[in-house]
Structure prediction request, 626 residues.
Amino acid sequence: MAKIEEYIPLVGQAVIDDLRLLGERLKGKVIQHINSTPVGGGVAEILNRMVPLLRELEVDAKWDVIKGGEQFFEVTKKFHNALHGKAEEITKRDFEVFMETSQQNIESIDTYGDIVFIHDPQPIALIKKKAANKWLWRCHIDVANPNERVWGFLMDFITQYDSMVFSAPSFSRKLPIRQFLIPPSIDPLSDKNKELPQEIIDSVLKKYDIKKDKPIIAQVSRFDRLKDPIGVIEAYLQVKKYIDCQLILAGGTAEDDLEGFKVLEEVKEKAKKDPDIHILLLPQNDIDVNALQRASDVIVQKSLKEGFGLTVAEALWKAKPVVASNVGGIPLQIKHKYSGLLCHSIEGASFAIKQLLSSPAYAKKLGENGREHIKNNFLITRHLRDYMLLFLSLYHPEDIVYL
Amino acid sequence: MPELIKAKEPFKFCTRLHLSELTGLRATTLGQFLALIKQVSGSCIYHHTHRFLQQHQYLSPEPPNDFAYWVTDILGEDELGERLVSIDTIQYSTIRDLREKIASTIESYLRDNPLAKLRFARSGEEFHFIKSVSFILPTNYIAYDLNEFAEVLKKITIDSIYFHIFEARLRLEKPTNDFAFWIENSLGDKKLANNISSFDPYTSTLEDLRNKIIQIVESRITG
Prediction:
């Protein structure tokens, strides 16, 4: 795993110096992150990188994970979908299941941190253990139009926190607690994003039996309805009428994502007649994901809802032209026609893909602008800085803070 | 080369890091937009008129303030957008004055173009008011003379340059930027101080600004 000094060639010495200055101000404070899964999904991915780097900056960061059975995670998946605005039937029993598991976690988890940082709704009820320490809740979900019943249920917990964090301004609302905007980030030195030699890219293509004889369109995302993999296939089929190309749909599933397996089956069914569609299940195979993104000509992220859409940042960091839906945090990463193309429909996605495949110079320029934008705003060093400022803000309510 | 004056009090470089705080306030129409501009904290006005300086250090298609961007690109009121983008921020010494200028520009436009009140942003394209929380930290860099000053300027982050040029003057309401103030009062070089305070920093990227100041200081050193 990369050390903090290894980021200096990418972001400059002074940025790392600033991080060290902030680390000094947090000496003696224990920061305890709590989420629901140690692997799979964006939250675990960020924490896997963030916690060791915070420790290197002499911030005493810890990470604990709650426990829950199949039934609990089925309910939290329903909550997740409902918060994204999808119609879900949530029963009284669902809320009971949520509270029963929460109660077990309240009893078994030690919330020892000076700052307890809770990620997403699954562990939200731990706030009942709040003592004299500070509590933060981070919502990684697109809650621009949430199911009000589920949001209302969560509000009883949210208002007990000291502050909360959203990934995009459109998720905010009037709240009685402070709320901060901190977009997530990618790690440019992780296996998923580091530079790869061409031989590795070629060997990964060979491994999955993909020939580079026609342009590659790819969506790298969990198999999840909200990522609209079926819509991607439909967009690809419209492009295919005019340009001979191939499609890669690659992704893993998070441990707590039971519905993902159902979606994967539906996608396989839809793709089975076309040999140019490659469906790849890649749980935790970051080098392969990296190689597939680098081998692609156009990367798509046709999500219907998106907490942030880190796969867009990953693709842009590799200077790839991207076609992505105008939802969640995606417009923060893509300025339409400047650092990628935004779309609102299957037809729009297919039109944009055709444009990029037909105009390689335009596609290249969009990719280059995209990489610069990610470098300035969405790398893990910016995220580390924001988190440390967030921790300090818990002790400083004013707008101008002298440290 | 003339001998360099050593200051009794060194210039102590600070850095300014910021966190964006959400307010939950949003506007869909120009009427709501104007009402909220009058009501939100100065830290909000500051955020939306200065955010671009730190987030877009390179050429980008966005105009240099969020208010103008929304009015132009979302509401399609190009003329008002142009009036907002051309407000000469450097002329205002307080956020209070800047806010009044922005509000009066919108008011006067609405008086002349009452139909503009009917325009509204689509769902998902509302203007979200955000405020800037600044954290100011001393760095380990100090300078006693112009040579040291130029050398440090080459090394420090653009956040530090940003703080001493923009934030110190407008948000902390100092009479000029910190660099010019120190050069005049601690080194007694009024001419150089005037040179540094006379250009409009809002029309440069922060990297260009860094290079410009280094260039002015170095040509002063070599006489």
The longest strand of chain A covers residues 30-35.
